[in-house]
Amino acid sequence: MKLYEFQAKELFAQGGIPIPRGTMVTDPEAAAAAAAEIGRSVVKAQAHAGGRGKAGFIKVADAPAQAQTLAAAMLGETFKGFVISRLLIEEAVDIDQEYYLAITVDRESKSPIMICSAKGGIDIEDVAETDPDAIVSLVIDVAYGPWDFQLRDLAERAKLDPKSYRQFVDIAKKLYDVFIRNDAALAEINPLMVLKDGRMIAADAKFDIDDNALFRHEALLGLKEEAEEDPIEAEAHRQGVTYVKLPGDIGIMGNGAGIVMGTLDMVTREGGAPANFCDIGGGASEEVVRRCLSVVLMNPNVKGVLINVFGGITRGDAVAGGVLAAVSSLNVKVPIVVRMAGTRAEEGLKLLEGSALVPEGNPVEAARKIIALVKGA
Amino acid sequence: MGILVGKDTRLVVQGITGREGSSHANQMLEYGTPLVAGVTPGRGGQRFQDRVPIYDSVAQAVEQEGANTSIIFVPPPFAGDAIIEAAAAGIRLVICITEGVPVIDTVRAVRYIEELGDKCRLIGPNCPGIMTPGEARVGIMPSSIFRKGNVGVVSRSGTLTYEVVDLITKAGMGVSTCIGVGGDPVIGTTFVDVLEMLAEDEQTEKVLLIGEIGGNDEETAAAYIKEKFKKPIFGFISGRSAPPGKRMGHAGAIISGGKGTPEAKVAAFHDAGMTVSDTLAEMVERAKALG
């Protein structure tokens, strides 16, 4: 779950990480009031995407009236698919240096990893491309957390200004604490700013929380902004359906993440375009199939559906029964191809004969059939 | 023979009285898996199906029944602790089926187990377990599709693995050991670990490796294969059509920041001299053609 900058900064502040003074607002008048309080300020559109500055969604306001005008211009605008409904009004600061600091979980070392660079303020992936040596990292032993000497070494390797080491070590340790305490998948400060007066602050904040750990963060759960997700994905999420929207026109369902991924690949290779990823899980009862199918059909682009089931522990005939019942209760108008293999698959396919559904045993043939049906429609 | 599980396995099921735990415990018993104990805190002294003793802790199951392998079905909030409990009790092989374990819990469990050196190994989380046909089923793979044979199978997926095993059986071949390493970003045992074991296993004559997008475990495996792995090995990569930034069901199946792309994985396999099939059927045909 991604947090907005202003939410991430609240977590930073709670953890003792210095941030600029600021207020989140949702209308131009409040922006003016906040700017009046803060003084010379920066108006920052809140969105779950980077590159706001370049696109004109971060601007300096010298006076409250200007903050109001900028706010009015940004609110309601769309940035990378996100409609802007919140702004962070923040004190404008005098920049001396811009660094980069982030923590994530490294799959290879199976540990938290801290990433640092003296080249902050720009997209770190661009730095990785143009100047990979400017990015250094520290694998952290989760049993102890980072030691001060390791962080000083990291700062040295990153070629930060030695005058900043002490503040850097302090902020890096606090960021690690915030990362662990909130079950983050990513905690990023870019830029980690050194001001003209020598203070180091987190000028921007990116924070992504491990979805698997949300159960133990009820307070954070309240921040979940379903309005910003795709509406069908949000509905699927509410219904407990594993669903990812994709740009094509063939709905895809299957029993397991692997088989669904494999089905997407197959359909794509055969020249079709999947409209979604949808995992119906093990069991595949009528109720579950109906719930999944109704979510898949919420997408108006869907012109046909391919259901790919491997009967393992779940028997094919039981799945076929579930699919038939779900389809008849939903009054489905688009063609549906059901591919079935594994335990009692033949019995399952036989059950589907004579129905509106198209049974098929071979996965590649099933993909070809649904593509032909969708193209013919 | 096969690897990791077999006739010497003495299995304890953590979470044996839960819905998933009890259902799969039954199927493992049916298959003839040496299931010696179950654990559900607070239910010690009872019996599962009137035969398998239930204990309050893994330590008791080790002490009383000599359990050496554990399979975990407990819910995600408690799975990390369950892994460490098993490791602390002296279990040598811990298999965590549970999906949805917080990543940092897995990181801690892996860290704990690392300290034990070669005394303990974790498979998973978010995996279908291990099957050594004719000897032991320690997991949730459907028994009926398996025949004993000389093909080793290692995969990050569950269902896709069943599909390939079904194809192997239908092609008249069989499986030595089939291992699902798990779909999470951080897992206890990776492809290379499994390949090292399959390399030593006499029963395994060829290997099918099913990778997927996300991370770089396939690339690491390819480097190992190129250097050291001598048996014929066939590759497949799932998720080749997935757009970047979208998580494809498995928590670990995501292309992010230009990393974990199928192109990089396919290229790495090719560089290791492996074929990468477009379909599972093609992969199985290639394995069969080898004789």
Describe the structure.
The complex is a heterodimer of chains A (377) and B (291). Chain A is of the alpha+beta class and 377 residues long. Helix content of chain A is 37%, strand content 26%. Chain A starts with a strand and ends with a helix. In chain A, strand 17, helix 11 and strand 18 form a beta-alpha-beta unit. Chain A is built from 13 helices and 19 strands. In chain A, strands 1, 8, 9, 10, 11, 12 and 13 form a seven-stranded antiparallel beta sheet that branches. Chain A folds into three domains: 71 residues, Dna Ligase, domain 1, CATH 3.30.1490; 127 residues, 2-Layer Sandwich (D-amino Acid Aminotransferase, Chain A, domain 1), CATH 3.30.470; 148 residues, 3-Layer(aba) Sandwich (Rossmann fold). Chain B has 291 residues and is an alpha/beta fold. Chain B has two domains: 113 residues, Rossmann fold (3-Layer(aba) Sandwich); 149 residues, Rossmann fold (3-Layer(aba) Sandwich). Chain B has nine helices and 14 strands. Chain B has a seven-stranded mixed beta sheet, sandwiched between helices. The chains are: A alpha+beta (377), B alpha/beta (291). At the A-B interface, helix 9 of A face helix 4 and helix 5 of B.
Give the number of DSSP strands of chain A: 19
Major beta sheet, strand line-up of chain B: 3-4-2-1-5-6-7
- Major sheet description of chain A: 7 strands, antiparallel
**Would you give the CATH topology of the largest domain in chain B?**
Rossmann fold
- Given helix and strand content, the structural type of chain A is alpha+beta
Which chain pair has the greatest contact? A-B, 50 and 59 residues
* Termini Cα gap of chain A: 38 Å
Number of helices of chain B: 9
Number of DSSP E strands of chain B = 14
**What is the highest CATH level, the class of the largest domain in chain A?**
Alpha Beta
Portion of residues within helices of chain B: 25-40%
Shape of chain A: elongated
The quaternary structure here is: heterodimer
